[in-house]
Amino acid sequence: MESLSQEYKLAMQKQGLLALVKQKEPKFTDTWFPYTSGQIGPYYVQSVVVENDGKDYAEAVESICRIIRAEVGVTEFDAIGGGESRDWDFSNPVAVALKKPHIKVYKDGKILGSTDVKGKRVVWVADLNNEGSSIGKKWYPTINENDGKIVYTCFYVDRREDGVKMMDELEIPNDSVVPLDENAWKMLMDIGYIDQSLYGSLCERLKDKGAWAKNMLRTDAGLEKFWELFSDPKTVAKARNVLINGYPDMQEEIADRLSKRFKKITVKELLEG
Fold it and tell me: Residue 210: inside a domain, yes or no?
């Protein structure tokens, strides 16, 4: 078993990235998008869009298989696992390609497919590594509770954010086909998908996404985006989530700036309505 060379992995990253670009992913903004965690960022990505092109989808699956063959070895694990439900878009065909049982785990802990997990060494296959909350709070505990063990995880896309720390804490070796790192942003700039200004912003965020977020919220454009979300009944919950779970230390600052810029508002009104 021989690990993939860095040159080969960069070529695989570029191929996967171009497959996403073909489907107009990732999507970027000059301001920010609200994430489920309450944090904010300048882009979001839907990795399952590669299914829109059969050839790209097949290559995505084969790329995951290549990583698993090289980094784990097909004789060193017993089953492929994936979580409800987008993981299955990748884990199911990977299990077929590697001729391994497929363990499908639901968010409520129910297991379908290969249900005999006891003693199994499981390679987890997922569409996206984001905050790492799903694998940390759902998939990893479920496999453990059924006396199995996740020995490796392969993501199609890795945002290189809090999910990286989660994998380290769980001590699970992992890799991805398309890490959204500085190399990825440089590739996108080189093909004209993003400009140099956005490239610089993305690289700054890689260094410290918390500082990036606070700096963004302190700009006029960032504040306007917050007010836009807060003023719409359909998105007000997302705006509140940013201050409750994302950046609670900015509550008074945001309330003060909104009061000066738009209308008088207290922190309580900002958080509770």
Answer: no
**Element housing 263 (H / E):** none
Same structural domain for residues 19 and 98?
Answer: yes
| CA-angle at 256, arms to 250 and 258, nearest 5° | 95
Q: Under a CB-based contact definition with an 8 Å cutoff, are residues 122 and 151 in contact?
A: yes
C-alpha span between 143 and 146 (Å, rounded): 5
CATH number of residue 149's parent domain: 3.40.50.2020
The residue count for the chain: 273
For 134-144, how does the pLDDT look when each residue is reduced to its tens digit (9 = 90+)? 999 999 999 99
137, 55: one domain = yes
Nearest C-alpha neighbor of 80 from the set 67, 96, 57, 66: 96
Please identify every stretch of the chain with a pLDDT value under 70, giving residue numbers as ranges. 1, 273
Q: DSSP string covering 160-225, please? A: -SHHHHHHHHHT--EEEEEE-SHHHHHHHHHTTSS-HHHHHHHHHHHH-HHHHHHHHHTSHHHHHH
Q: Is the pTM of this model over 0.85?
A: yes
Q: Would you say 50 and 60 are in contact if contact means Cβ atoms under 8 Å apart?
A: yes
Structural domain containing residue 107:
6-189
> How much is the pLDDT for 243?
98
Tally of CA atoms within 13 A in the half-sphere of 91 that contains its CB: 28
Q: Are 172 and 141 in contact (CB under 8 A)?
A: no
Alpha-carbon distance of 226 to 221, in angstroms, equals: 9
Residues 51 and 134 in one domain: yes
Per the CB < 8 A criterion, the answer to whether 140 and 150 are in contact is yes
Q: Are residues 181 and 249 in the same domain?
A: no
Any domain includes 198: no
